[in-house]
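USER: Fancy drafting a protein?

ASSISTANT:
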Amino acid sequence: MAKMGRPTDSPKGSRVTARVDEKTKKMLDEYCKKHNINQAEGVRRAIWRLKEDE
């Protein structure tokens, strides 16, 4: 039987980890708090910005 969860149009099956310094962590925390999002969403947005800046 398949595992049941919240349905999504964009499943996120890949995991990325990174070590950051305290200044970078604080920047991420402040951004996430300001926009009421979790850290994973903040990192996704940052990655998409990389593509937009090309």
